[in-house]
Amino acid sequence: MILNMFQSVGEAVFDRFAGVGRASIMLFGALFGIPNFRKGFPLFVKQVYVVGVQSLTIIMVSGLFIGMVLALQGYTVLVDYGAEDSLGPMVGLSLLRELGPVVTGLLFAGRAGSALTAEIGLMKSTEQLSSMEMMAIDPLRRVVAPRFWAGLFCMPLLAIIFSTIGIFGGHLVGVEWLGIDAGNFWSIMQSKVDLVDDVFNGVIKSIVFAIVVTWIALYKGYNAIPTADGISKATTDTVVQASLAVLGLDFVLTVFMFGG
Amino acid sequence: MNTRKIEIMVGFFVTLSIGAMIILAFKVADISATGSGETYELKAKFDNIGGLKIRSAVKVGGVVIGRVSSIILDPEDYLPVVTLTLGLQYSNFSETSTVSILTSGLLGEQYIGFSPGFIDETVDILQAGDYIEDTKSALVLEELIGQFLFSVGND
User: Fold this and answer.
1) How do B39-45 and B80-87 pair as beta strands?
2) B13, A188: Cβ pair inside 8 Å?
3) A160 to chain B: which residues are within 8 Å by CB?
4) Least C-beta-crowded within 10 Å: which of A64, A78, B92, B123?
């Protein structure tokens, strides 16, 4: 009885290690398989369309609304201290440093990550991946690699668009509606926001999130149990684990970047 | 979805994000003095401008009539010279006008308060490029506290 318990704990631990190992091998195989640029690039462009362009609407709409809400909430606090002109840097910094990369990461996990997992999982269950191997096509290189690079490429761009639209949303509420001075809004923001410290660090964050989210999504799909149940579980796992990873990593990165 | 359409959409997406990056880098907004109308410039020399910034507002009785367009240090007497860009519709200020650097609220941003002077036959109207003679510097809280402590210590 006790022996069984130890056995199951040990098994779970080894399973974890095996999972990490499999995921690393998969990533390695996908990235460092001999790249064929001429053949690979159209696949990459197609995936950029699926992963990036089709996520554009949700990113833009949520960016706009988050920017507007930030401005509205910030205003109610700042106006008490007569500091409502500092709304610009408040909206700008919180979007560029935190909300841009993080919310984009979460939306990306939900919108694109789950789709990637389901797609690859279904390819596996319908044995398309095995047939590719039969035809001497490496599915890692043909299926996984373009999706990974596309995710890595798209998410920083989406995060940038998110932040920019969010700042305009803040401008919309702060300046057009609540009547903050437009010159102050922009000039104080310009004096507080630093291109390297804030904008580039935000981009670095979103690159890290892109790697993690896409990796988790692809691994979960590639290793899904090829049944209806298995794919549904894999998709859920992708969204849950990718979101948690984004939030956890965000804290770590923030400590390193802005924690002093 | 044929390949060409996909390529166009991807190109659009990439261009859009590059545009967003440029907006972020230059932080948007070339907000001219008073919207898009015609403007003219006045200058004023202060002893201390405190936290005044380029694009801070110039206000007459709380109404924004223009913005600070540049702040430079006069190389001869080391005093800051502030250039005000004002809307052309507010061009009839006399030489006796005064400008002072004020703070909106206790902790708020600083702006330039412009008080129009009286007009009669003996005073001229300010022309573009003129210096406003009568200026009042920013109140720097630390200096005030310093003076206060000093005077307390003398008693």
Assistant:
1) antiparallel
2) no
3) 17, 20-21, 24
4) B92
